[in-house]
Design brief:
The chain is α/β, with parallel strands linked by helices. The protein has 9 helices and 8 strands. An 8-stranded parallel β-sheet has the order 1-2-3-4-5-6-7-8. Helix 5 runs parallel beside helix 6 and helix 6 runs parallel beside helix 7.
Length: 276
Amino acid sequence: MRLDSHQHFWRYAPAEYSWISARMARIARDFLPDDLRPALAAAGIDGCVAVQARCTPAETDFLLDLARRDPLVKAVVGWADLCAPDAADVVARLAREPKLRGLRHIVQAEPDDFLRRPDFQRGVAAVGRAGLVYDVLIYPRQLPAALDFVRALPDQPFVLDHLAKPDIARGQRDGWDAPFRELARCPNVSCKVSGLVTEAKWGTWRPDDFRHYLDAALDAFGEDRLLYGSDWPVCLVAADEYAAVHGLVADWAQRLSPSARAKLFGGNAARIYGIA
């Protein structure tokens, strides 16, 4: 099964998606499975993992409702308040939903030490007990806290989103390379090759701009812990169409063996998120 391991759906309302700035006007509209379906079909992709874009219980309910009704959505990474006293009960209830396969919080918007909070770590421990994955969304400056976080929860499977969002537009390597590779040494962490074009120069990036980051990800995580994701529709602020984002990764991956490409474009995501 070929999978896009990271994309979003929403019914757009300005108050709900205040992070969509005037510069991102292209994505200030509804994006639903029927909008994505032709692009996935053209890329030969069978389905997707829908990831939360709002930190509300309603977001999880919305994505699960889409997943129940549309077989294109193979899994959902939702949201729950993992700092709440009843987090374990909430997570256990959500885990009864067959397509709920993970949870995420928008940690990139939190203080740098957020991942070290004991209450948050207790909530994430409940995620693991429920058999779910936790997606880590951070900036490079938060990588040291992320390393402490994943070491504190060695039995919890983690997926790092967007290579921790290095500043590709400025060619950032210092402050990213070393902690990124250190995080990769934790065997319970995998990494999504996703969200890269939005960290590059919008509309003017070139494939060579990403080579260092893609090569570093492969070297650090290996072929068994990398997952392709488009970050659609957010990627459309920086790329003309889905095909450009998919093609960027597919062209780079030509160096890999057929089996490694199959893992990158679906096999690893199916295994890590438990998608049949």
